[in-house]
Amino acid sequence: MIGGVFLSRTLEGLTVALIGGDEREIVLCAELQRLGARVLAVGFPESRLPGAVHCRLLPAAEEARAAVVPLSGTDDRGVIKTCLCKPGSLVLTEEAFRAMAGKVLLIGSAKPAIRQLAGYYNVRLIETAENDEIAILNSIPTAEGAIAKAMAELPITLHGSNCIVTGFGRCGITLARMLAGIGAAVTVAARNPAQLARAKEMGLATAELKYLAEAVGTADCLFNTIPDLVITAQVIAALPPSALIIDIASAPGGTDFQAAKMRGIKAFHELGIPGKVAPLTAGRILADVIPRLILAACS
After folding, report:
1. In whole angstroms, what is the distance from residue 114 CA to residue 280 CA?
2. What number is the average pLDDT over the span 133-158?
């Protein structure tokens, strides 16, 4: 079922390349095949995708109408971050973009070099990490994973604890709601007045982000979702010595990890949580959304 509508063979005759990935892309592959697509697999053990055509990157780029790169995307050099075979072995080079000229590339977030090459070779970029449907649904396993990490590291229950959530976007909302649901006293810190108003409507305490250092004095756990330096040395100095920091913002995160280390405060940067804690669920999310994005882009 795709987007609440049962589809059958809607990708018939379309060749799609899966370039790198993990358990999530294995689930996606099965759905693409169910919908009739011919799947070219790059960077997967043949035993894991028996119905796909396994090949190297350049032949796949030349043959496929659409290519899918994992949500983790690439580094600044174009190296694909997630690969089940040989991590670091797949690189989106200029030659690959030349082969994809006029085609579609779905990628988590495109680095500047990727954007430049896509523009030069007329490759249509679809940044899946910016897709609200994927991001909101992925916020569920992300929040569960962040909470599980906190439970594993704290000597107390989250029930009855004081938790701060910085940022109140797609992940922040889900995380704050879950924490409140298990009995934590939750304070949301954000810049946007509308986000703070929504937090108040949900029965949560609020603080303006610029006054964060004044709000963390009794915090047991600080969860950051903002990909900008907001958990500064000043904020860390105001935390209790026993506090825990869980940063789930995209790299490089929003925490001064060196300041936390110097103060002896445990701080963790947790990336790619959905693929680690709930790969099947995360794969089903991709399988529900990606085929529709491909169909729309290739129609």
Report:
1. 29
2. 97
Q: What is the per-residue pLDDT across 8-21, written as a single tens digit (0 to 9) for each?
A: 668 999 999 999 99
> What mean pLDDT is predicted for residues 81-109?
91
Give backbone dihedrals phi and psi of 295, rounded to 5 degrees, phi first. -60, -45
Task: Give the strand pairing for 185-190 and 205-208.
Answer: parallel
Distance CA 80, CA 114 (A): 11
Q: Between the CA of residue 155 and those of 149, 161, 221, 242, 257, what are the distances in Å? A: 12, 11, 11, 9, 21
Residue among 270, 290, 285, 287 at smallest CA distance from 142: 270
Question: 42: closest CA among 93, 80, 73?
Answer: 80
pLDDT in tens, 251-268: 899 999 999 999 999 999
Domains and CATH numbers, the chain: 15-130 (3.40.50.720), 134-275 (3.40.50.720)
Task: Show the DSSP H helices in 47-91 as ranges.
Answer: 57-63
Query: What's the whole-model pTM score?
Result: 0.89
pLDDT score for 4: 47
Burial annotation 58-85 (CB, 10 A radius, 16+ → b, else e): eebbbbbbbbbbbbbbbeeebbbbbbbe
Cα–Cα distances (Å) from 156 to 18, 152, 159, 162, 236, in that order, read 43, 10, 8, 11, 20
| Contact indicator for 56, 42 with CB cutoff of 8 Å | yes
| 51: helix, strand or coil | coil
> For residues 102 and 87, what is the distance between their CA atoms, to the nearest angstrom?
28
Average pLDDT, the chain: 94
**3 has a pLDDT exceeding 60:** no
Please name the amino acid found at residue 215: A
Q: Closest Cα to residue 260, out of 247, 271, 249, 272?
A: 247
